[in-house]
Amino acid sequence: MHKIDLPQSIVDRVIVRRGRAHVHDDLDPARTALIVVDMQNAFMPVPVAHAPCEMAPHIVPAINRLAEGVRTHGGAVVWIQTVCTEEDKVSWSNAHSITTPARAEKRYAALARGSEGYRLWPKMDAKSDDLYVEKHRFSAFIQGSSDLDAILKARGIDTVLITGTVTNVCCESTARDAMMLNYKVVMVSDGNAAANDEEHNASLRSIYTTFGDVMDTDMLLACMAKNAGAKAAAE
Q: Would you call 135 a catalytic residue per the annotation?
């Protein structure tokens, strides 16, 4: 697992700015969605991968625990799968022109709809009544990427828990855009994976200081149980 490093100086800055260390610990579990980004074979350390992340398999237990907890409390679990289509080669041509032709072709093949690389990692606890959303860009929320925003707003979701791989690319991009669209954002510190601790922690710090909150799986599960209990007692 990544060694999480959020210096006290950063925590202190957050407290001065927001009044407390965790601004979204009052989340409503029933209005919360677990967003699982790119936990597909294409990003795992297996032969079909075009961009393997060695750390990705290690975050699977945390994501699966969160998925169970979110379902238990009436929230939504959303599995985001990157797909590459012929149209993407035109509409997002710049993304593929700034890499080598061989790497671009490997990405097309690995993320073609229905391919082995496109499929979710088999150890993910994905259920038939979860939500499945394809994205065409790094961020799942940016215009032209998916209809995730409309899906969540139709369900009354106001909080998103961001997990997946890699922390500092698709996960951070999705988290930033979610905040811009007025969602409460929590990056799950032990539910994201990057190439190394440095890149992982840099992303967590960026989200924590400006775009949302950072919590680990145990804290989130405790918050959901506490808040769900408080809501039930008040009804």
A: yes
Residues 20-52: pLDDT tens digits? 999 999 999 999 999 999 999 999 999 999 999
pLDDT of residue 33: 98
Please report the pLDDT score of residue 231 as a whole number. 73
Q: Is 160 helix (H, G, I), strand (E, B) or coil?
A: strand
Per-residue model confidence (pLDDT) at position 232: 75
| 38 catalytically annotated | yes
What are the φ and ψ backbone dihedral angles of 114, each rounded to 5 degrees?
Answer: 90, -5
Look at residues 11, 65, 79 and name the one whose alpha carbon lies nearest to residue 224. 65
Spans of all domains in the chain: 24-234
Domain 24-234: assigned CATH number: 3.40.50.850
* Best CA proximity match to 26, nearest among 232, 230, 234, 235: 230
Residue 171 catalytic? no
Residues 6+ apart with CB under 8 A from 217: 62, 65, 66, 188, 190, 191
Read off the DSSP letter of residue 120. B
Token duo for residue 66:
């969160």
- pTM across the whole model: 0.96
Cα distance between residue 68 and residue 74, in whole Å: 10
**Residues 141, 178 contacting (CB under 8 angstroms):** yes
Q: How far apart are CA 10 and CA 82, in angstroms?
A: 33
How open is the CA angle 219-170-186, to the nearest 5 degrees?
A: 20
Residue type, 18: R
Identify the active-site residue in 53, 170, 171, 223.
170
Please identify which of the residues 53, 88, 106, 135 carries the catalytic annotation. 135
